[in-house]
Specification:
Helix content is 5%, strand content 40%. The protein is built from one helix and 21 strands. A hairpin with a 4-residue loop joins strand 8 and strand 9. The longest helix is centred in the C-terminal third of the chain and has 13 residues. The chain is globular. The N terminus and C terminus are likely disordered.
Length: 253
Amino acid sequence: MRPASKPASMAVTSVAADSVSNLYVADSTNHIIRKITPTGVVTTFAGMAGVLGSSDGLGGAARFVYPAGCRCRPRQQRVRGCGNDSTLRKITPAGVVTTVAGHALQEGSIDGGAATARFNIPNNVSLDSAGNLFIADTNNSTIRVLSSAGIVTTLAGQSTQRGSTDGTGSAALFSFPIGVAVDAAGAVFVTDSLNNTIRKITPAGVVTTFAGVAVSGQRRRDRQQRAFQQSPRDYGGHSGESFRRRLWQCDDP
């Protein structure tokens, strides 16, 4: 254990607090999930520093690849999604890591049961009051939902087309969404990164532009081209991890 005043080197991409004020930290470049107690004691909660992989397991036996994104809710389990191997994972309060949706290193955009579904570098997650997990599926430019029953559907956007069009469901278009949050009324707010806008999705799937002005089509295409040409460590300006991120969702212990 190590006091927070003299922490080990960390590249923090996200932090979440549980109901008793423990912090859970996605330590991206170390490929681990850290825990910081209210007294400032830092421990490695899951994964092994410097070792990449997609293995499930207990604590240090589990493996991650550039974890990022944290949320908390009181249901005794922690869930996070992984960008680089395109899965969603769960971490229990005891530190047991399991894969709950998708298949490691098999990118795609398939809806269905948790084992059948495929993602392509999901980059953030958020839960509604019913326990449904909303996912910013960045490389697919779609917003996905993992229901509390374990079924994955596409709420809005198209995996084969990017843009800034408002509309309902698949008629709406996004361009590399990287953030998602759900309010108390069930509305979903999306950080639409290459459009420089915040989008809003109603529970019925109607997408509107909530804030900002979308960049022009040519500027967006230029940005997309640069994004594909750059290495994962160069994209997005977030310590370069935008295309190598794991995202996780944690429930209060």
